[in-house]
Amino acid sequence: MSDIADQLRPITADEWPRFYRSMFTTFGDAPRGPYTETPPPVAELDRTLGLPDGDRFAVTAGIYSREMSVPGGVVPTAGITWVTVSPTHRRRGLLTAVMRRQLDEVHAAGREPVAALWAAEAGIYGRFGYAPAVERGGWRGAAERLRLRPEVDCGTGTVRLVELEEFRPAAAALHDRVRRFVPGNMARDDGWWDRQLYDDPGARDDGPARQLALHTELDGTVTGYATYRLRSGWDDHGEPDGTLTVGELRASTPAAYAALWRFLFSHDLIRTVEAPDASPDDPVRHLLADPRAWHAAPVDSLWVRLVDVGPALSARRYPAPLDMVLEVRDRFCDWNDGRWHLWGHPAGAFCDRTDRDPDLVLDVEALSAVYLGGISLAALQGAGRVTEISPGAVTQASTAFRWPVTPWCPDHF
Ligand SMILES: CC(C)(COP(=O)(O)OP(=O)(O)OC[C@H]1O[C@@H](n2cnc3c(N)ncnc32)[C@H](O)[C@@H]1OP(=O)(O)O)[C@@H](O)C(=O)NCCC(=O)NCCS
Questions:
Q1: Under-70 pLDDT residues of the chain
Q2: Confidence (pLDDT) at 148
Q3: Which of 103, 240, 335, 404 is the residue whose CA sits 20 to 30 A from 9?
Q4: CATH number of the structural domain 2-112
């Protein structure tokens, strides 16, 4: 086994088409899109791992260098992607070998204290220390019942449908302001905006191109944007049965935010509005006259792994002061295993090795789950995954690890 794992290596640009095809085949999809022959701008081939097998790759994996918002800051993050092992090579430890190589290399480089990924299946990554830290809301409702409360202020701005050339720079500038305040949001450079706005014909389902809307104030300032898709349809009785699917909606003021939702809810011929990727805590439900009409079906989205506990815990802020010793169990990355003194505060944090007795004992999965502030440490204690040594430590740590803004990641990767 280790002989095969030793053959894992970064791929070259010439090998991209084979690598890409192998990955799609293992996921059960046909390769499509503009990057079947050449790597996309966001690819970092020196951070890929491939295992050549004739004219295929038996293993594919990659890492994106990303910047993720965390409570009170941003942190360089290894975005794990493209992980597949061919059915011909399964259950021989090759995924384990990929995880080993990636985490060793990220740790050795010392630049990214955190790794994150979207898991194809929830049973795969826990053993490697990853934990679901972010959810998406899976929102859906009957269009005729989705109306804003009568007193909602939608301001004096206007919503306009625009072309990509106008949308992209305005949306990018706004996103860069608002993403910093939402743990789990990712910075997007030009390559990531290309990818985010790529209008995949395969996802159109014979419908029109994706719609792009900007919200503009009277003085011309852009204070919001929305992307969405329309799919028309008629039921057996000839009634309109269309669906409007919200991609992403961001705004820098509550009025712009309300105006964009009002605009989306007021489309004709639509029976269903859905926002699968919106935050589970998306404020829209507080705008609705009938909030029960807007149904949530939350699903895990981003999984997080603390690669280096000390730098990771120091990189975020804590809404309540915290001064305690955590005993962290980390079987896969033993450099994290042991006791850490965490001094956390709304203004900053330090986290260092210590010999002092622990206040809490937990494994790195539990610590990774609570890192972005969206998962309750007390709930993990209830599940037997956190052990309280000093009385009151769970309540104190639970409070200090939470964050007022629920983590959210609208970027699939
Ligand atoms: C998931 C996948 C990468 C696993 O690769 P693999 O090389 O067979 O995994 P390994 O042999 O290293 O398995 C390591 C451990 O994980 C377990 N495991 C592997 N895949 C699993 C899954 N889908 N669900 C639950 N456990 C899984 C194995 O049983 C093994 O456990 P053990 O150590 O207790 O024996 C591979 O099956 C695959 O490519 N699946 C389709 C694509 C996919 O889902 N990729 C993930 C994208 S996020």
A1: 1-2
A2: 98
A3: 335
A4: 3.40.630.30
The residue whose C-alpha atom lies closest to atom 1 belonging to ligand 1 is 124
Given the CA of residue 85, which atom of ligand 1 is nearest to it? 39
Burial 336-363 (b: 16+ CB within 10 A, else e): bebbbbbbbbeeebebeeeeeebbbbbb
Q: How far is the CA of 94 from the centre of ligand 1 (A)?
A: 8
Per the CB < 8 A criterion, the answer to whether 302 and 135 are in contact is no
182, 408 contact by CB (below 8 A): yes
pLDDT at position 1 is: 56
Kindly state if the Cβ of 85 falls inside 6 Å of ligand 1. Answer: yes
CA of 99 to the centre of ligand 1 (A): 11
What pLDDT is recorded for position 2? 61
**CA pair distance 360, 387, nearest whole angstrom:** 6
Mutate to test the pocket of ligand 1, among 90, 102, 128, 302 (most ligand atoms within 8 A of CB): 90
Q: Name the residue with the closest Cα to ligand 1, atom 19.
A: 124
Phi/psi for 329 (5° steps) reads: -100, 120
Return the active site residues.
125, 413
pLDDT given at position 297: 98
CATH superfamily of 139-298: Gcn5-related N-acetyltransferase (GNAT) (3.40.630.30)
The candidate with the shortest Cα–Cα distance to 247, out of 230, 231, 227, 264, is 227
308-401 carries CATH number 3.40.50.880: no
The pLDDT, as a whole number, for residue 21 is 97
Closest C-alpha among 260, 248, 273 to residue 411: 248
Q: What share of the chain is helix, strand, coil (3-state, %, to 5)?
A: 30, 30, 40
